[in-house]
């Protein structure tokens, strides 16, 4: 079973490390980190570097595709090579999935048209621009028979376990969960917008805005939304 995890410059590390740590334990799992070409890919921190093991061309038919999020998602959602690969591979995947703002890439590829999906709370409403119904109160959203999206960052671990249950059965998923000793008991109960105080929401929003409101990020977001608006207008003719 071939599992292709998309890496791109600016990805968020936990978005892919979490589900990777789960999925690698599935029977006969062959995990590939894919990008335009094999080589180092720098995470959003600018410090962590992960090696892409295979190119898109070398990975034409994975069984599972997983797309992580990151502060550069909007930029890469304009990369037609990425979008074309997602469209082509989705034709034969068992599961096409995303963590965090990775769902924006699936939406930009047209895979979520008219469907429900989720993302990080800071990105979930942007899905509306692609004809997607955003879901902000569910950690994992099954968009259709073969597409599943999850909320931000740490939710990727839950998604990995969910996929493990679907693929290997509940007993296998439970064993993987115990092997990871995944029993989250955070010291603060502020991990969802519905639980956080007003002050915590403001602080978290300001923290995210430092990256999301940077000139390159804003330029990429405006460009992506403009591209999509033009494409929709032309399709009406």
From TrEMBL:
Keyword Transferase: yes
The keyword Ribonucleoprotein is annotated on this UniProt entry: no
One BP term from GO: regulation of DNA-templated transcription
Keyword set, alphabetical order: Glutamine amidotransferase, Transferase
Superkingdom of origin: Bacteria
A Pfam family it matches: DJ-1_PfpI
Molecular function via GO: transferase activity
Residue ranges annotated for the DJ-1/PfpI domain, each copy included: 2-161
PANTHER family (UniProt xref): ARAC-FAMILY TRANSCRIPTIONAL REGULATOR, DJ-1_PFPI DOMAIN-CONTAINING PROTEIN
Protein name: Glutamine amidotransferase
């Amino acid at each position: 079973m071939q599992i292709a995890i998309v890496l791109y410059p600016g990805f968020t590390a936990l978005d892919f490390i979490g589900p990777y740590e789960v999925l690698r334990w599935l029977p006969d799992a062959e995990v590939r980190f894919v990008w335009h070409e094999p080589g180092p890919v720098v995470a959003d921190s600018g410090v962590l570097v992960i090696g892409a093991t295979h190119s898109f061309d070398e990975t034409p038919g994975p069984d599972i595709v997983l797309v992580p999020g990151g502060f550069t998602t909007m930029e890469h959602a304009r990369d037609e090579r990425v979008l074309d690969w997602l469209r082509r591979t989705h034709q034969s995947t068992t599961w096409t999935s995303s963590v965090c703002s990775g769902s924006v890439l699936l939406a930009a590829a047209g895979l979520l048209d008219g469907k429900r999906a989720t993302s990080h709370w800071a990105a979930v409403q942007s899905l509306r621009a692609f004809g997607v119904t955003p879901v902000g109160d569910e950690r994992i959203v099954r968009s259709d028979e073969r597409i599943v999206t999850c909320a931000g960052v740490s939710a990727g671990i839950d998604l990995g376990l969910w996929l493990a249950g679907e693929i290997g059965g509940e007993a296998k998923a439970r064993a993987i969960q115990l092997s990871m000793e995944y029993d989250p008991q955070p010291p603060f109960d502020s991990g969802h917008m519905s639980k956080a105080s007003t002050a915590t929401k403001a602080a978290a929003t300001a923290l995210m805005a430092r990256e999301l409101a940077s000139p390159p990020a804003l330029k990429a977001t405006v460009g992506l939304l403009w591209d999509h608006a033009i494409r929709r207008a032309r399709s009406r003719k």
